[in-house]
Amino acid sequence: MDAAQSASAPQPVETQTPEAVEQSPEVERDQLQTAVTDLQDFIQSVRRDINFNLDEDSGRVVVNVTEAASGDVIRQLPSEEALRLSENLSEIRSLLFEAKA
Q1: What are the residue ranges spanned by the domains of the chain?
Q2: SS3 helix, strand, coil % of the chain, rounded to 5?
Q3: Residue pair 78/57 in contact by the 8 Å Cβ criterion
Q4: Average pLDDT per run of 10 along the chain, which is 101 residues long?
Q5: How far apart are CA 1 and CA 101, in angstroms?
C-alpha cells in the first residue's frame, strides 16, 4: 500500500464500551452537574423564562420564551399563525368528511 492509499483508507473509530462508561459515574455526575449549573446560570443571565402551555383550541403543546421582567413573549413555537392554520385545516377536514357522508 502506498502513502496515498494509506492516507485515504478508513480509520477505525474508537468507542467506549459500556464497562468504560460505567467505571466513572462520579466524574460523569460531576460533569453533568456542572453542565446543568452552567445552563441555569446562562438562562438567568439572559433573563428569559421558558414556559410550556397547552393550546386549548388545538390541544398542542406551545413553548413560549418570555422576557423575565416584563413577561413579554419573545418567541412562541409553534407560532400563532401555525396554530390558526392547524385549526382551519381541521375545520376544512371535518367539512369534507361531512360532505362525503
Answers
A1: 47-101
A2: 50, 20, 30
A3: no
A4: 55 56 67 83 77 76 83 86 86 81 62
A5: 72
